[in-house]
Design a protein that fits this description.
The protein has about 280 residues and is α+β, with helices and mostly antiparallel strands. It contains 2 helices and 21 strands. It has 2 domains: about 60 residues; about 200 residues, no CATH class. Helix 1 packs antiparallel against helix 2.
Length: about 280
């Protein structure tokens, strides 16, 4: 074999070696993520709970998907009489980079929600507002608002964020009770003789790194009737251990071929050197 041919073959084997090393050194990331949103869940006295259904999003690190109805009709809650006006909205996203976000709530007619690329939730209140009837009759007691929403985000690093917005929300009684626009976590509001309202209730359904936030949960006194409005859940998102872009079995086979190539070149080089010495 001539020196030029030997050099060309050595170059090919060297290139194969470099490519194999690059593939081994370049791990493939596949962080998982998930989020879900439920606009409302209502438990009527003497019956089970009904909800707006769940809008969910998941990602296995390679492919993201969603399922559910993002804006179900109020009629999905059946014949309940607690939520009497408003539009149900629920959205969630899960991305292949290990981040997720959710947003849910009740808005007025023509209103809606949208989740941005950074996970922020933009709320359009619409018109006509939202009404949750606590007591009917001649002198009703209602919760009224332009919009009631919650939101959350999560990352595969374990970080979570939450938020609740009650736009122009109040309880209409003989003495009106104003509700805070952005309540802190776990704020309890008493409507004397009628109900207890929990604002911005939060739990960690799958431990640290996961969160469920509810904008407004009402428990009627002396009754099993209850309503949970705007529940957003994010996480648990998992950071997976990086794996080689080429599976170990494939890398082993490739490495064997490269080693064999270097071996053949070495034998031919030695023979060529030996031939040169004999000629000399």
């Amino acid at each position: 074999m001539t020196a030029s041919r030997l050099g060309r073959r050595a170059g090919l084997v060297a290139a194969a070696t470099a490519a194999l090393v690059a593939l081994w050194a370049g791990p493939a990331s596949a962080d998982t993520s998930k989020a879900s949103a439920v606009a409302a869940t209502v438990t009527a006295a003497g019956s089970g709970a009904v909800s707006s259904g769940t809008f969910s999003a998941t990602s296995d690190g390679q492919t993201a998907s969603t399922s559910g109805n993002a804006q179900p009709a109020l009629g999905v809650l059946g014949s309940q009489t607690l939520i009497t006006s408003g539009v149900l909205v629920q959205q969630a996203v899960a991305r292949n980079d290990g981040t997720s976000a959710a947003c849910a709530g009740l808005v007025g007619t023509g209103g809606g929600i949208a989740i941005g690329s950074d996970g922020t939730c933009t709320v359009t209140p619409g018109s006509g507002g939202v009404t949750i009837r606590l007591v009917g009759g001649v002198t009703p007691v209602d919760i009224k608002a332009d919009a009631i929403t919650s939101r959350c985000t999560a990352t595969s690093a374990g970080a979570v964020t939450t938020g609740v917005t009650l736009t122009n929300a109040r309880v209409t009684t003989a003495v009106a009770i104003a509700l805070p626009v952005n309540p802190g976590t776990g704020v309890s509001v008493s409507v004397p003789g009628v109900a207890t309202i929990l604002l911005n209730g939060q739990t960690q359904p799958q431990g640290a790194g996961s969160v469920r936030v509810s904008a407004l949960a009402v428990s009627l006194l002396g009754s099993t009737a209850a309503v949970d409005v705007a529940a957003s859940s994010c996480g648990l998102n998992v950071a997976t251990v990086p794996v080689p872009a080429v599976p170990l079995s494939g890398w082993t086979a490739g490495a064997g071929a490269v080693v064999a190539g270097w071996g053949v070149l070495a034998v031919r080089f030695v023979r060529r050197r030996a031939g040169s010495v004999l000629v000399a």
